[in-house]
Design a protein that fits this description.
mainly alpha
Length: 152
């Protein structure tokens, strides 16, 4: 197997751990709590854990992945949540949808960190970086741009 596949695979595994920690925090505190999980607990803790795992995994350019991976995962999770759960139902997610929400965080983390690892890897060419950066910008625009449900 080529070096890039091993590198992206390790980045994706870190993303899966990132998503699993986010899902655990959400399931432990989110659905039943009226305030919901705080943004610090929901984003900062898994981000620091992901950075530590990237460093321990000896990924090339781990610091760039540690900066871009969580942002890509967050934007992807917002898009996937909006695609699967209507915005009016986000205030009180039914108990049956908790597992689905956890799976969304794991999937978004895996894809976000894998794409970030691929984009900043030493073997990726400029066309790869441009394609991943453009895809990331589209995802962010869909998640947070004008016309998204967050603007209502």
């Amino acid at each position: 197997m080529s070096k890039i596949l091993w590198t992206v695979g390790r980045g994706a595994m870190v993303g899966a751990v990132f998503g699993a920690v986010m899902a655990g925090i959400y399931l432990a505190d989110g659905p039943e709590s009226p305030a919901g999980p705080g943004p610090g607990a929901m984003f900062l803790a898994p981000t620091l854990l992901g950075a530590a795992l990237l460093l321990l995994g000896r990924l090339p350019r781990w610091s760039l992945v540690a900066l871009t991976g969580p942002n890509a995962a967050l934007a992807l999770s917002m898009d996937l949540i909006l695609a699967s759960v209507p915005i009016s139902a986000l205030a009180s997610v039914p108990i049956s949808a908790e597992g689905q929400m956890g799976g969304i965080f794991v999937l978004a983390g895996t894809i976000g960190y894998g794409a970030a690892t691929w984009a900043v890897s030493t073997t990726a060419g400029w066309m790869t970086r441009i394609a991943v950066a453009a895809a990331f910008m589209v995802v962010v625009a869909l998640a947070f741009g004008p016309g998204s449900p967050w603007w209502d």
